[in-house]
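Lab meeting notes turned into a lecture example. A postdoc, R.K., suggested we walk through two folding results consecutively so the class can see how the record format repeats. The first protein's sequence and structure tokens come next.
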Amino acid sequence: MDHDITHRPSYAQLTLSLDAGESVRAEAGAMVSYTGDVDVETQAEGGLLKSLSRSVFGGESFFMNTFTANGASQLELAPALSGDVQHHQLTDETLFVQSTSFVASDPTIDVDTKFGGGKTFFGGEGLFLLKLSGTGPTFISSYGAIDEHRVEPGETRIVDTGHIVAFEETLDFEVKRVGGLKSTLFSGEGLVCEFSGEGTVWTQTRSPDAFLAWLIPKLPTQNSSN
């Protein structure tokens, strides 16, 4: 399976070249177009309970699409948000991905949900992650551009939960408040994730939560008298 990522980093699109018999599993709604003889199968991947967990807690669709080429074909995929797409080749390992950042993977990759902790009563914000495990290609997306940060032993890196894209299983992480309760409620920072150990964390230059916090107060509201 060859891949090409174009229009990055602002409006990235993933093009996959599939040979006969090759398949790829993608988030529902990610398909832009395809050429060639391709079968599309929509199913609750991993069974009812796992699909429900991904949908309710992971922010992903209940269903996933599997595209299987019957001959040489091309498939174009794109994420919902404007930003970049990045390829990760897993080799018997696990990658944790922020909800909504999963685009596609080899069908043999197991996609599960993990709660990272830190949900608050006031903000309703927590860290719900997708756990990608196995061997094969995976593709993740960001809102904005993607930065890569290497954490070495003895170091820590603090990342706002809204800016996390993915991180390696080798890292330890803890979700915590910024300062005290007052800072959490009024600083605009919310929750952060403290990474330690050894591994790589990928961040995005924009936060969907921050954008919604800016946008929603500006939306027109219906007059209660009408």
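The second example is placed directly after the first for contrast:
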Amino acid sequence: MPATGEPYPASVLGLLASAGDRPVFEHGSRTVTGAEMLGMIGRAAAGLRAAGIGPGDGVALMLGVTPEAFAVIFAGFVVGARLAGVRPGLPEPQLRHILARDATATVTDQAAVPPYAPHPLAVADLLSASDSGHTPSLSARPHDVARLIYTSGSTGTPKACAQTYAALDAAWTARPEDWPPAIRELASRLDRYLVFGSLSSQVMIEYGILTLAAGGTLVATDRPAFPEAIVRHRASASVITVARLHKLASAQRVDPADLRGLRALMVSGSPLPATRHREALDVLGPIVFHGYGQTETGTISMATPSDPPGSVGTPPAVVDLAVRGPDGAPVPHGTDGELYVRTPGQATAYRADPVETADVFVDGWVRTRDLGHLDPAGRLHLVGRTRDVVIVNANLYYAGPIERVLASHPDVAEAYVVGRPDEGSGEAVHAFVVPARDRAPDHAALRALVTTHLGEACAPKTVTTIAEPPLSPSGKPDKRLLTELR
């Protein structure tokens, strides 16, 4: 096991060393033990060093979901490189941007890479070195950037959050003694954690490290269709989006699959409406964990199955949270305001973007630009985003409260509000609703409901019934695409 005081990823290598002959990764019919994974990381690190990759070098990762991909990611940390994961399905301009700005080499397990990818390195070649049998030496420097995590782009152009090796080392994920209560409860259910999409995803890899620390196994699937993948891989836990959670609950009502082994679904990517939350708990049982965090901060809080629907749980003691008004001053408990947070592993800046960095990273705090409040029990409730607004007759109205009123109607499962130019009022509210039943909600009744609660200016000029919202590549509802619907 790595010696105390060594830099990241010493904590993760220690988990693998402790696992020994226990399986830590399953891919198809193949299983990889902790000792085998540690050997793969050592070989990949030797391959990276032989290719001239060391501290401070930028490495783009174009990888599938395999044991080798996991090994290469942590080999990159071993040599002290700056890693940038390339999410599948990125538009070509974003892909060019990442590869041109943030990488001096591209590590890939794909048959072909874009011609503009710098210094391609094949995973198979990196792993061809012999295993020394020793824990690899660590080259990371604490204040170097360890990884660039791109935001989803759901509120604008994706930005690269720079997280240092010191921040990764300070995070509590790999240390069970530091787990907050909600994470401790979740960890007890991570026997077989289903992974898919990209191991470079912040959410996917952080739950993966948590699984290793809990003594569980990462189980990869190439076809993440639910509930089939859960049943086929005997998964006890998985990450799930709000839209996919609703589809799973609906499918279970009609044609139930055997999900007795499923113990945790970690909802990620967007707020979970209370109606959807109750539906999932009713159909699937007490297995829903609703996490709240940002790319900039990591996990901020998590609701366990025993928390009331509509909240995102109680922020743990290791997270500082302040609710502030427009003047930056704290507001009383129960009052909505903008959320500012400090977490142990938060990012320090947006790479090469000093203007956005100065706006978001303020005196050691991260300005989330989310709106919310704490209830009397200390649970956090989200109510919208500061930039998610509609300006009607020069007055600013937040979309979140309008969406909550619409979603309170029994015929509405989800509601999304956008602003569109309007000749009479500058902008007007336009709503998109997902029905809770098999019939479309009465649009006039919904407009009247909003008028009663929030006033005529907030009443939607149009209401459109949709089966589900369009999603961004990260799985979040994409309001920019909604504005294009007619």
